[in-house]
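Blinded run. Sample ID left blank on purpose so nobody reads anything into the name before looking at the predicted structure. Input follows.
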Amino acid sequence: MQPDPQPSSRDQHCSSEADSPSPSESSPPDLATPISQEDQSPDLDRPPMNFQSQFRGCMELYAGLPQVMDYFDAHQGWFCRCAHPMKAEPLGENGYVLVIGRYGSFGYEVEPKIGLNLLPQQAGVYRIQTIVLPEQEGQNYVVDFQAAMHLSETELEASADTAKLGLNQLTQVDWHLDLGVAIHFPRFIYRLPKSLIQRTGDRLLAQIVKQVSQRLTSKVQDDFHSTLGVTLPKGLRRWWLKHH
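Blinded prediction complete.
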């Protein structure tokens, strides 16, 4: 895992990146023979293919650091609501089971389900780690999710919008995600060049993260500011996401 994220400089504001990825690539492989039922089953005799991506992101919340920390500490009250339309169910005190949705390419789809543990913060850093779900043993994929969020109170640049809404404090949330996925594909997928499978899988993984991050960030911003009785105008919805 990479070192914990450090607070971003205020001369690099969070800004919106409007990516609109498609959740699925449906073009089938150009295969000369029909795909048998056996070929569609995951080939567990082969080593899995591994896909790895790293992301950095940022969002701004218009309140002081203690108030933002109180909100994140009480994730039981908002996580499932903000995760919608993804299916999220509580698991223990700090865990959740999250169904991301159906994604795929080359005629093969999977509906990933992951367990996430939202660990209590330490020195302003919140970590999220994978929980291995018992029902996932023997399945054809494994997800390794390691994220860290760093909260820092920064100077608010006053504007007409902030003055109108009575906003006078700002906390910046910088986060880093190290995401790995190992998949046992069906046999028919392995008829394709390995480089094509790798390239397509890496691209699809990045699209999924961008799509989920865009939705979740927007909902968390709205939900948090609703606790302040504030509806943010578009110009104050600042966030960004970068794929490394």
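Unblinding after everyone has recorded impressions. Helices lie at 37-40, 65-73, 79-83, 160-165, 194-226.
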